[in-house]
Amino acid sequence: MSWRTNPQGLMRRSKKAFGEFLSRPEWQWYTTHTFRAEYVSPKQADR
């Protein structure tokens, strides 16, 4: 259980796993369809 006593190794493994998660094609589809920057007028924002 060296991962419990070594925080650097845990961070390195978590960053690697997160990078693999972000490199999946589903994430690319999700970001392009979810975080599209569209202009919203102040009147529409109040609804």
Fold and architecture overview:
The chain has 4 helices and no strands. It has helices at about 1-5, 5-20, 25-35, 40-45.
Individual helix count? 4
Instruction: Name the shape in a single word.
Output: elongated
Number of strands: 0
Distance between the termini: 52 Å
In angstroms, what is the radius of gyration?
19 Å
How many structurally independent domains? 1
Low-confidence stretches: none
Strand count, sense and barrel status of the largest sheet are:
none
Give the DSSP E fraction (strand runs of 2 or more residues): under 5%
Helix fraction bin:
over 70%
Secondary-structure content class: mainly alpha
Mean pLDDT: 67
Strand/helix succession: HHHH
Key features of this structure:
mainly alpha
What's the layout of helices and strands?
Layout: H1 2-5, H2 7-22, H3 25-34, H4 42-45
Short synopsis of the structure:
72% of the residues lie in helices and 0% in strands. It has helices spanning 2-5, 7-22, 25-34, 42-45.
